Amino acid sequence: MARQKGDVLQGTLDMLVLRALQREPMHGWGITERLEQWSEQVFQIGQGTLYPALYRLERQGLIGSTWRMTENKRRARYYTLTEQGRRHLVDELAQWRRTSRAIELVLAANP
Amino acid sequence: MLWLSETWRWLRSWRQRSQLERRLDEEIGFHIDAQTRKNRRAGMSRVEARRRALIRFGGAEGVKERTRDQIRSVVLDDLVRDLRHSLRSLRRAPGFTLLVSLTLALGIGATTAVFSVVHGVLIKPLSYPDSDALMAVWHTAPSLNLPQMQISPTQYFTYREENRVFDEFGVWTVGPATVSGLEAPEEVRTLMVSGGTLEALGMSPIVGRWFSEEEHAARAPATVMLTDG
């Protein structure tokens, strides 16, 4: 696996996935769609990294999953944010805001 | 009995693994179907829609492999974590670990030694062909308090003449003998046999031959065979 932007985003991807699930449970495809829409097509989530991420997050206890029927009467696995996941998301968001603000400051500073 | 539930849990996670894999297949299938439907709504043909969906997904096998790694690591994580924890505890109590190791070593060594002997003497079959057809026969006279009696000459001759059960039949007894000569005298164990005893073994000696009829005759000069045991 090449160390490309996918890897850099792993921690960030986790945060985005948790954010996508913040309001309501969703299945894997729905998560990619949601992130794609919200990011105005910037994030075409490498679907190769999404499912490993989902399984990893579930293993860490940040999300849970259940099988449900969609409107089209298809069976899909829906992921939900757990309490631990919510707390983790809040922490990550705060951390991200701090980091990105710091980056902005550095980039905007007069040399 | 904690180890029992731990083993059960560990076994169960292996079973869950195959279940997880099947579910993963289903989940990925759903994802690709959903993307295909979206493509169709955008106006693509059925074939094109599916093709694009598969490309977009980017190699289902690769995804499955990476996800499988995540699943696998759950089971492996548990095992490794438990092992590491045990090793750490052991390292923190070196005296105890040493004592336990020595005790185990001693116990295992002693048990192995005892069993080797038992196996060699009692359990291992004799190195003759068809060794469970070899019988040793004693007489018993419980009312005379003689649980195990040896055979008398008359009994021997009677058996020899009337025997219809055994292929070969002979008697033997053990005793000591002294070998003297150039060096200091040495006491060796001997086995005195009648005709038929050695033939009953069902094989030929490595070198030479068994005793012949003339050598078994009364008042014939004593003949000796050597063993290498």
Description of the structure:
The complex is a heterodimer of chains A (111) and B (229). Chain A is elongated, with a radius of gyration of 16 Å. In chain A, 59% of the residues lie in helices and 14% in strands. A three-stranded antiparallel sheet of chain A has the order 1-3-2. Chain A has helices at 5-8, 10-20, 28-38, 47-59, 83-108, and strands at residues 26-27, 63-69, 75-81. In chain B, strand 1 and strand 2 (146-149) form a beta hairpin. The longest helix of chain B has 40 residues, at 2-41. The radius of gyration of chain B is 39 Å and the shape is elongated. The two termini of chain B are 50 Å apart.
Short description:
The complex is a heterodimer of chains A (111) and B (229). Chain A is an alpha+beta fold and 111 residues long. Chain A has helices spanning 5-8, 10-20, 28-38, 47-59, 83-108; strands at 26-27, 63-69, 75-81.
Key terms:
A: alpha+beta; Arc Repressor Mutant, subunit A; three-stranded antiparallel β-sheet; elongated; B: 229 residues; mainly alpha; 3 domains; two-stranded antiparallel sheet; two-stranded antiparallel ribbon; 6 helices; 10% strand
